[in-house]
Amino acid sequence: MGVQKFTYDAVHWYMQKLALQIVAKSGKPSDQYHLGKIILHCFKEEPDFIMQIDGATGESETFGSALKRTIKCAGSLRKMGLNVGDHIILMAPNHLDISIPFHAALYLGLGIGCVDVALTVRELVDLFKCEKPKVIFCQNEKSENVASALKNLNLEANIITFNDSATYCTLAKFIENSEETIESFRPNEFDPETTTAFLVSTSGTTGVFKAAVLTHANMAISAPYWWLKYNTFPKPTRMTLLTSPTQWITGVITILMSSILRITRLQTSLPVTVEHAYHLINTYKPTDIKMSANMMSGLLKSELRESCDFSCFELIMIGGSAVSQTLIDEIKIVAPNVDVCIGYGMSEISGLSVINFNCVRGACGQLLNCVQAKIVNVDTQEDIHEPNTPGELWMNGPTLFKGYCDNKALTEETMSADGWLKTGDILYRDENWNLYFVERMKMLLKYRSYQISPLEIENVIQKHPGVDSVAVTGIPHPNDGDLPVACVVLRKGSNITEEDIKNLVKESLSDSKQLRGGVIFMEKLPLTVSSKINRLKLKEMVLQLVKGNQF
């Protein structure tokens, strides 16, 4: 057991061994990618293994308990009439119950949409319109928002609450009503190559909600690559700390693979503040973590840093945004013996596509073996063959998503005519095919680990009758990424204040999309020759104003 200096194929050998056992039992070669059958097999092999711990309460659950509860949950979903290809929604913090319908859905071939608990009714309407869920699992305190969004769409769906409710069926009751047993249960048969496993929310420059459709095969091929540094399976490491919410693909992959690889998963039903993260690390001594660069930076910059012992970690994987060499150096100060890896990827390629295992300075890393890539000239669309020449990164391979849910036009826009994913990111490579990130072509903002569409915020502000025009950009912050700032041109005679604009956004959008950079009132917005907002010029103007403290 332990982390290796170089990458190792042991995780793939283990996954192949599991696949052979499952295919030998079913006689169906495609079952090697059936995540539901893989998880069932793993749960049955060691029922006393501690699967998960809620660090907020101290509660834990074994494989045996999860096996019984997930099977009963699957039985109730079947009784409700759900079948292969239907969708469910999970909308809750990382308590012990959220993984129960998560695994049950994989048994049955149901697509899982994991949703930010902070979404407003307006945002839920966009999401439900796209994903058309049959069942929504949520906290009772969010159930009325869910019901309002469903009513707005005239969409029928069952609401199941994780906690007590006077109005809706609870998960405990839902499970109790099932007659399914471990002995009698059989997962659904389906083609893992085409059956949806996850609908991963991803923001876009259009401001329109979109969800990347990932199949069982996509995830079964991609997810093991996160554990290439370990050489002993199962149980490659004692405990992984989950800090990502389930709507992030790191959260999905951690829940999925910790069950398959037999790694105890430490999570929490409370918000992951710096103080709470320190408590989890000091109390449980986790050995593995996948964490955003912004969150890691926050842990290291806190005045209370000396109170946390980071030496328990064997491997820390950082991603979600650009990772500076300074951050890596700071990690090495608090945990000299830890192995630090950098990850680059996107939901459309099933998460990870590039890893910097050996931390080549400034690089994102090298391509995973399951991913094809090329760098393309943005203007000519021709391949760039020379090193150190920036261009747009295009990717392909068996982990490539099946498109955006219920949005053929956007899928076609994102793909090339011959089936390559256009990432929208500018990178270059060196002679050894280490990839270096340059800039995003798309103008998305990233506050902490949340992607934010400027257009979505603009659409809200533009509805105010006193606003003539608006454009949103970001002010860089050393720890939090981009702070959204609204540049507003008022109609003649309007007396709207900064607080009016901020309150309008606060009433319509979730916390990550708030105007933390403030509001700037302008005479006019900079335009291109084609009368579109010149966002690069706008960014320059805002940065100059910030530099001069003129607002």
TrEMBL record:
<keyword id="KW-0576">Peroxisome</keyword>
<dbReference type="InterPro" id="IPR045851">
    <property type="entry name" value="AMP-bd_C_sf"/>
</dbReference>
<dbReference type="GO" id="GO:0005777">
    <property type="term" value="C:peroxisome"/>
</dbReference>
<comment type="similarity">
    <text>Belongs to the ATP-dependent AMP-binding enzyme family.</text>
</comment>
<feature type="domain" description="AMP-dependent synthetase/ligase">
    <location>
        <begin position="45"/>
        <end position="404"/>
    </location>
</feature>
<dbReference type="Pfam" id="PF00501">
    <property type="entry name" value="AMP-binding"/>
</dbReference>
<dbReference type="InterPro" id="IPR042099">
    <property type="entry name" value="ANL_N_sf"/>
</dbReference>
<keyword id="KW-0436">Ligase</keyword>
<dbReference type="Pfam" id="PF13193">
    <property type="entry name" value="AMP-binding_C"/>
</dbReference>
<dbReference type="InterPro" id="IPR025110">
    <property type="entry name" value="AMP-bd_C"/>
</dbReference>
<dbReference type="GO" id="GO:0016405">
    <property type="term" value="F:CoA-ligase activity"/>
</dbReference>
<dbReference type="InterPro" id="IPR000873">
    <property type="entry name" value="AMP-dep_synth/lig_dom"/>
</dbReference>
<feature type="domain" description="AMP-binding enzyme C-terminal">
    <location>
        <begin position="456"/>
        <end position="532"/>
    </location>
</feature>
<protein>
    <submittedName>
        <fullName>Luciferin 4-monooxygenase-like</fullName>
    </submittedName>
</protein>
